[in-house]
Specification:
Residues 32-382 form the Aminotransferase class I/classII large domain. It is a single chain. With 389 residues, the chain is α/β, with parallel strands linked by helices. The chain has helices spanning 18-29, 45-57, 70-84, 99-111, 126-134, 153-159, 182-194, 233-236, 251-261, 270-279, 284-308, 333-344, 373-388, and strands at 32-33, 94-97, 117-122, 138-143, 164-170, 198-202, 227-232, 245-248, 311-313, 320-324, 346-347, 349-350, 364-368. It is built from 13 helices and 13 strands. The strands form 3 sheets. Strands 2-8-7-6-5-3-4 form a 7-stranded mixed sheet, sandwiched between helices. Strands 9-10-13-12 form a 4-stranded antiparallel sheet. Bound molecules: 4'-deoxy-4'-aminopyridoxal-5'-phosphate and glutamine. The site of glutamine has 5 residues, from loops.
Length: 389
């Protein structure tokens, strides 16, 4: 073998995801895992039973249709109509994917040429950097800065060049919890129209907005035919392991994304697709109870972190709280997170790894609150004892 690295240069430096590293550390040390964002309680029993029924009835046990089972595509279109008044044709404008992760990957692989630039909010959700790199394109960060992480729209305008092809936007935003306001969404949409850009929107936390409202960019003037809207059942229904996601977009954009998607997984999650179709029809009371439960948990953990001495940036949405550890220690976020489990039996995630600018998130640490209240209380107690007394 020659000395050429086995891993190609596009993937150099991407290593192991921070979620895998920190969840492994939680398991190895028996710590409370407030790192990787997955609930410690499964979603509704009726939805789980729907999956069991589908398995038993032999629905989805063999390859489902490439674009997704018709029942789910129809349920996704109905969901877009019910919550946002948006009409999509289930046959040509909806695509089921292996989680939002595959939808993002397929969108990047389908829409980008090598040399294209993609502007995304920094800190980035980690798969964005990898998918943009795999497509041979270049990521261009628009840095969201504490304490409120609002996007600087003049800075966004200044980042747009002749090579800019895609805006990859995430609201509610992981990890900061920022939710775009209507004015911000409108201003971003106007820039996309002015510069004739494609927009890919990651909306997996669409039903977890505590302050403000979720505005799909695809609903704004001039955006219907230039936006690939992405969401997923994982967060909304608390079944992150099922990996059922989807794209809603114009027929030509869906066709483009489908072309890439069919050579990634082709299809996935057969029986779970039927279960998610049923989940999407749950009454409004499900969605509001889900949000209210997470709001209570947000406030519980925010208070606990504040009492422990962290600077807390209360999120408007998602199930993550970004904190600043500067009042507690001189160490950087990665070192802090690697030593936290041994210090007090709690795992968190360093936001610093989601930034290109090396100093921008140096002391930011993210905690998830999608855990049972007694677990959050116990974690907060441990942190308070370790840092504040
Ligand atoms: N985007 C963001 C912002 C996320 O936090 C996640 C994690 N759920 C994903 C995409 C991936 O979603 P999925 O599990 O449906 O692939
Ligand atoms: N979305 C989850 C988070 O941000 C993690 C998903 C993953 O492990 N890739 O914590």
């Amino acid at each position: 073998m020659d000395d050429r690295p086995l891993l190609n240069r596009r993937l150099q430096g991407l290593g192991t995801t921070i979620f895998a590293e920190m969840s492994a550390l939680a398991a190895a040390t028996g710590s409370i895992n407030l790192g990787q964002g997955f609930p410690d309680t499964d979603g509704p029993e009726a939805v789980r039973e729907a999956a069991v029924r589908a398995l038993r009835d032999g629905r989805g046990n063999q390859y489902p249709p490439g674009p997704g089972v018709p029942e789910l595509r129809t349920a996704i279109a109905d969901h877009q109509k019910r919550f946002y008044g948006l009409a999509f044709d289930p046959d040509t404008e909806v695509l089921v994917t292996a989680g939002a992760t595959e939808a993002i990957a397929a969108a990047m692989l389908a829409l980008l040429e090598p040399g294209d630039e993609v502007i995304a909010f920094e800190p980035f959700y980690d798969s964005y950097a990898a998918c943009i790199a795999m497509a041979g394109a270049t990521r261009v960060p628009l840095t969201l800065r504490a304490p409120d992480f609002r996007p600087d729209l003049d800075a966004l305008r200044a980042l747009i060049t002749r090579r800019t092809r895609v805006l990859l936007l995430n609201s509610p935003h992981n990890p900061t919890g920022m939710v775009l306001t209507r004015e911000e969404a409108r201003a971003i949409a106007a820039l996309a129209v002015e510069h004739d850009l494609l927009v890919v929107t990651d909306e997996v936390y669409e039903h977890l907005v505590f302050d403000g409202e979720h505005i799909p960019l695809i609903s704004l003037p001039g955006m219907r035919d230039r936006t690939v809207s992405i969401s997923s059942a994982g967060k909304t229904f608390s079944f992150t392991g099922w990996k059922v996601g989807w794209v809603t977009a114009s027929a030509p954009l869906v066709a483009a994304v489908r072309t890439a998607k069919q050579f990634l997984t082709y299809v996935s999650s057969g029986p779970f697709q039927y279960a998610v179709a049923e989940a999407l029809t749950l009454p409004d009371t499900y969605y509001t109870a889900f949000r209210d439960d997470l709001l209570t948990k947000r406030d519980l953990l925010a208070t606990g972190l504040h009492d422990a001495g962290f600077t807390v940036h209360t999120p408007q949405g998602t199930y993550f709280i970004t904190t600043d550890i500067a009042p507690l220690t001189d160490s950087d976020a990665l070192t802090f997170c690697r030593t936290l489990p041994n210090r007090c039996g709690v795992v968190a995630v360093p936001n610093s790894v989601f930034y290109d600018h090396p100093t921008a998130g140096r002391t930011q640490v993210r905690f998830t609150f999608c855990k049972q209240q007694r677990i959050l209380t116990e974690a907060a107690d441990r942190l308070r004892k370790a840092f504040n007394g």
